[in-house]
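Help! Submission page says 'invalid entity' but I think these are all valid:
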Amino acid sequence: MSAIELHEFEEEEEELPAWSLPAEAVDRIRVPVTLPEQVTRDWAWGGSTGAGVRVCILDSGIELDHPLVGRVDHSVAVVRDEEGELQVVEDEEGDLCGHGTACAGVVRALAPDVELTSVRVLGAGYTGGGEIMLRGLGWAIEQGFQIVNMSLSTTRTKYVERLHELADHAYFRRVLLVASAHNMPVESFPWRFASVISVGSHEEADPLTFYYNPSPPVEFFGRGLDLDVAWLDGGTLRCTGNSFATPHIAAICALVLGKHPALTPFQLKSVLYQTASNAQGGAV
Amino acid sequence: MSDLEAAVAAGVLGADEAHRSLLQATVEVARAIFGAKAASVFLLDEEAEELVFEAVAGEGEGELIGMRFPAGNGIAGWVLTTRQPLVVDDLTADTRWSRTQAESTGYVPKSMMSVPLLVEERALGVLQVLDRPPESRVRLREIDMLGLFANQAAIALDLLQRARRAREALAGEGRLAPLARVAARLEEGERDAAFELLRAFERVLAESRD
């Protein structure tokens, strides 16, 4: 049986015409990586530490020098200037509520060598606002992070269209958005979009156990119950919720990209499915 | 929805009390199902940026209604702005929790489940369940159940607010007060005639706009 060929594009490759594939261009999309007949976890991320993968935590900031987070390569915040315009500025305040630090700690625990960047869009009083979230997400996509962890969502429909455009833009730019599903049966975004990886919680204790859900909108379930996560002042806090399941999946994606950096979001989602605990390749 | 429609929909008189009973029943059932020491519903007063006790079952029942807290901080503040439920098993370890605030209610809990009350795009308030039995570990199913109670409480709170707005519109200096006063003075037969007149007036207005 022949193995399935997987198309991976080189970064520096010349752009193809937008809507068609001329015969002479076919050679240009031959692929350097071939998926084995059975994608296993060992193939997907065996030996990977996430080195070389840039992960963005779009949240409340990350506490600097937290022992469970370690190095944070860059921290910015989205703030309103005196004219009321949103600006992305260097952030020296760290994390004022703990949520972003928790997410960063989960990613660091599973993918120890990723580069972490913090984009603060939630304030001290947890007030974020859709505009600030949109601006932060837009910035993260422009920066070309391979993975953006979004343990947040908005229920406001007036932001949906712009958010949807950004999510699609990210998908085509190979910026993988890993987004928390809402913990209640309500409509919120961006996790409901098909262009992101949406994450809910399961109840098991193994951080690498994750499930593919054939009945979306929630597509994957990660560890989200009774976690001791990094919190303020170098401490930890026991937490439950999809907010913490999401960075588990983000970290697993980082491990895969550490080993197979050219995977597109579409390909990566397929690999996730094939290595899920309820799929054949998920057997450890 | 116009104020008059809201007034009619809410049934106006007595609706306030009925909706308050529905809210009270919701917190009582939530408390019983979770075996908790207390359950309460807070209404968000957006103008004052405060949370107001609207219904309490268990500890503090009958004493706390109307008591206010700042809405921007603490666990309720987190829940309101993230619009996500939050379960904290050890409140003393959580920097978001304010002991002083808890002490002012006369009961200091050890653990808490909180969930936002969402109607469409609005967050109307927060439902909290305090001190479940120590041996009962939270499972995801319980959080789902909490979400269901929150839906019910949110609907009751929404109705209560509509009834209040309708009553305000119809009472005293409210915009619809003159109409209500006229309607109240009319005898039954005259009332039918008066409403027929109003409907005719409405048709004239509608036709003049066509």
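Support: the input was valid. A stray whitespace character was the problem, and the output above is from the cleaned input. The two ends of chain A are 24 Å apart (CA to CA).
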